[in-house]
Amino acid sequence: MTRDDREVTDVPGEYDADSVESVTNDPLAALGIGEGLSGGLGGFDMNALFQQAQQMQQQLQDAQRSLAESSVDGTAGGVTVTVSGVGELNAVTIAVGRFDGADPEDLTDLGDLIVAAYRDAKSRADALASQALGPMAQGLGGSGLGISGPG
């Protein structure tokens, strides 16, 4: 007799093939928890959950697309920087006559003002993104499921 053909003799009590319940491929049903994920579990509907996740994903993609198409300005001392809603630098505008390109100190100041204007614009873009994406993050329970704001 091979290993697979052996009789079940090491099980305490008597072995009665008629009393053994049928084997199932549904682990929850095997545990007596219900009719699987789609029907039992006290009304838990996996299909509804999946559809809700798809809707949230579509809303997130729409919000991200809208943010990428929007623009936000930041200013500092005669410098205006424009960034997209996701923080991508789009333009730098310098007021005419405010800076002398031959003066090294003016050029240093200009560089500092560009950085300050970018930070202002980026801060505004982050606030816009938080406002647009915030409700979706709350819908996820703020769980950090791989969704991060622009940064």
Shape: rod-shaped
CATH superfamily of the domain at 60-139: Nucleoid-associated protein YbaB-like domain
The CATH topology annotation of the domain at 60-139 reads as Ybab, Chain: A
Biggest sheet, spatial arrangement of strands: 1-2-3
Report what the structure shows.
By secondary structure, the protein is an alpha+beta fold. It has a domain at 60-139: Ybab, Chain: A, CATH 3.30.1310. It contains 4 helices and 3 strands; from the N terminus they run H-H-H-E-E-E-H. The protein has helices spanning 27-30, 40-43, 46-69, 104-139, and strands spanning 71-76, 79-84, 89-94. It has a 3-stranded antiparallel beta sheet. The longest helix is centred in the last third of the chain and has 36 residues, at 104-139. The N and C termini lie far apart (68 Å).
List the helices and strands and how they pair.
Blueprint lengths: L26 H4 L9 H4 L2 H24 L1 E6 L2 E6 L4 E6 L9 H36 L12
Antiparallel strand pairs: 1-2, 2-3
Brief overview:
With 151 residues, this protein is of the alpha+beta class.
Task: Name the descriptors.
alpha+beta, 151 residues, Ybab, Chain: A
